[in-house]
Amino acid sequence: MKKLLSLLSFLTIASILTAQVNLNQGLLMHLPFDGSISDISPNGLTVNQFGNPSFTMDKFNNPGAALNFNGSAYLEVSTPNGELSPKDSMSFALRFRTNSTAIQTLFTNVDFNSNTKKEYQIAINWSTHPGALFGVEASVNNASCVSLGPYTDYVSTGTSTINQNTWYCLAGTYDGDSMRIYLDGMLMHTKELNNEINDCGNMVMRIGRWASFQDQYFNGDLDEFRIYNRALNIDEIGTLCDYYQFPESTKNIKEVVTNFTLSPNPTSDYITIDFEKTIVQGTVTISDITGRILKTKLLNKTNTMQLNISNLPSNLYYLTIKTNEGTVTKLIGKE
């Protein structure tokens, strides 16, 4: 069974998080690279290989559970009905490890022989967009497949975030208003984007190579590659990346009877907690991924609370609620 550690992490996180985690909803493609290049999503897209990619050990040292690209190998995914061209919203998630400092494309939807039909690209080591980048071509006035030249919108993980021979979990989302990019489960960059993404129809996704006029071959390993037609929430990204080590106080958690909602999440300043019923006594804490407590507020006969996190750096944090009914920890995002 692939990735026992990953499965255990998934079960642990799933028991802790109360926001909806549905990793099958909106799934357009899923390449687990578990000894096969097949797409196991409901679409069952056809995947062809070129240049002899080979199977290798994954992040958890499972043999034959990731795919190695040797700097001249790549995959093509046929999309006869535009399955991988979501316009209004999308997400991707994958694990990768690179062996090179050169500019490399992890995957892209671009016309192989021209620079005029482009939808999106995920690449690494661009000097103008350092680290890993998520670039999209936005439609002009929502017209279909109108190119503006270079990709018009980017988010990237930033300088000195990608090293050789190190596994990373990379994810990106677009929700119709903003693009976001995450590295190892942490939000790295957000950018507003109000246009639709180009829909060039019947494109061929290329994995490990950009196009004939500029190859940008990938040299390294890929694993657990997914594409969605919706923006994944923070909890779902955390589940896929399974990097979280929850604070000791949350290891033995009793289900909280009181229902509550958090909004907006992510946020740039205030986050509001609305409880289904009045909380007589309790605490709310915000901590970083190391478990260091950054903020604490008391709950005292209230059914709503507003927290100001505007002074925190952009990142993911734990929000922990303790009442006489139990304790629960959720992930929140600071933009």
Write structural notes for this entry:
The chain is mainly beta and 335 residues long. The chain has two domains: 4-241, Jelly Rolls (Sandwich); 248-334, Immunoglobulin-like, CATH 2.60.40.3080. It is 6% helix and 43% strand. It has two helices and 20 strands. It has helices at 4-16, 234-241, and strands at 27-31, 47-50, 54-56, 66-70, 74-78, 90-98, 104-110, 118-124, 132-136, 153-156, 168-174, 178-183, 186-192, 204-207, 219-228, 260-263, 270-287, 293-308, 315-323, 326-334. The strands form three sheets. Strands 1, 3, 4, 6, 11, 12, 13 and 15 form an eight-stranded antiparallel beta sheet that branches. It has a seven-stranded antiparallel beta sheet with strand order 2-5-14-7-8-9-10, with no helix packed on it.
Percentage of residues assigned to helices: under 10%
- What is the fold named in CATH at topology level of the largest domain? Jelly Rolls
SS field, number of helical segments: 2
Number of strands: 20
The profile of the biggest β sheet is:
8 strands, antiparallel
Whole-number average pLDDT? 81
CATH class of the largest domain: Mainly Beta
Radius of gyration: 21 Å
Number of domains: 2
Terminus-to-terminus distance: 37 Å
Name the overall outline.
Answer: elongated
Taking pLDDT < 50 over at least 5 consecutive residues as the criterion, the unreliable ranges are 1-19, 243-257
